[in-house]
Amino acid sequence: MDQHPVPGDAPALARGDVDAAFLTEPFITIAERSVGAVPIADTATGPAAELPTAGYAALATVAEENRDAIAAFQRALAKATDEAADRGEVEPLLVEHTGIDAETAAATGLLTFRSTPDARELQRVPDLLLEFGVLRERVDAAAMIGPSA
């Protein structure tokens, strides 16, 4: 299996080093525009549409001992999440930090970020894992969510 940093996926496709690549934005748009890559599967459709894919966690003891730091982190995350919803804020950062041009940044699909966990949305993850046999028993996502600032 060929391993290289994600920005190298489009060139690897073009050279024929790989037959396919699993990409996220902005690399999907970059590969489409730079080497004519064509999406063949979208893993964010059907039951996986808008599936929560990331989060932050701490041991309960650490969270209890650091309530002020956790609350400050949650406030900063809420502010960043609000800013990430504004394409006008995000597109120039894509240009600056990824080296893509403004036209590609404008065409890039952006992820939806949430700063406050939603137990119903999070529950979809262990429910799908249970459905497909990855888990053997139900996991209650709500029980894993700590207090919000």
Describe this structure in words.
The chain has 149 residues and is mainly alpha-helical. It has a domain of 103 residues. It contains 7 helices and no strands. Helix 1 runs parallel beside helix 2. The longest helix is centred in the middle third of the chain and has 18 residues. The chain is globular. The mean pLDDT is 88.
Topology:
Layout: H1 9-15, H2 27-35, H3 60-65, H4 67-84, H5 87-98, H6 102-107, H7 119-131
Helix pairs in contact: 1-2
DSSP strand tally: 0
Judged by helices, strands and strand pairing, the structural class is mainly alpha
Figure out the total of helices.
7
What value does the average pLDDT take?
Answer: 88
Order of helices and strands: HHHHHHH
Coarse morphology = globular
Radius of gyration: 19 Å
Helix amount, in percent? Answer: 40-55%
Question: Mind summarizing the main beta sheet?
Answer: none
- Estimate the strand proportion: under 5%
